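Students often ask what a 'structure token' actually looks like in practice. Rather than answer in the abstract, let us consider 2OG-Fe dioxygenase family protein, a protein of 214 residues. Its sequence is given first.
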Amino acid sequence: MQKIAELNPGNIRRYIDRVSGSVRRDFDALTPDPYVPAGFRRKHIVRYIVLERSGDLLELGELPMRPLFQDSRYNPVHGDLHRVYPRFTPSAATRALVEGFVRTAGLERGTSVLVQAQRITCSTGQEGLPSVEDWHQDGVDGVGVCCVARENIQGGASQFKDLDGNLILSDVLRPSELLLFDDAHVKHRVTPIQVRSPGSGHRDVLLFSHGGCS
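Now compare that with the structural description of the same chain:
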């Protein structure tokens, strides 16, 4: 995985890797998020624990399913709510991206990782909201966002500001790019997406987090 940018505060790091067709196909099985009644979000989740990490050796174990929970201090829309989602079953290629995140983030043995596969859809006259809570923090230690696909869309810029409210980054994450950041030092959001040409479009991302409420 190649680092292409680094920015402080927030220890925002940008990398590029390869996303294969089998990764993109994993997202076609996602089902609508019941907590977003407007219908533009699809989400499945899975959690892993780092069983072994020594040199090139990395072993992950899948953890039992449990709901997502965020304090309302961090999520004003879905905070204090136990959200139940279907299990995400990644292909071998997608599992390799999870392992790439663990290595790149430097996670040690015993660390648990939440993986969220998320598709935001839009259509003619209907935009999609990647960040329904707008500016926010996640209440975790570290976050990674891997862009898997952008199909017939515009918008969807990843934005970060420091805790004083100063904008420090606003840029579109392209397919195969991975963004890592320290959650405690920045607030973030993704701007709405709209179709580029008439019809439908979508933005697929893998969301990784560790520590805190992950």
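One point worth highlighting: Residues 125 and 194 are 8 Å apart (CA to CA). Ask yourself how you might have guessed this from the sequence alone, and why that guess would often be unreliable.
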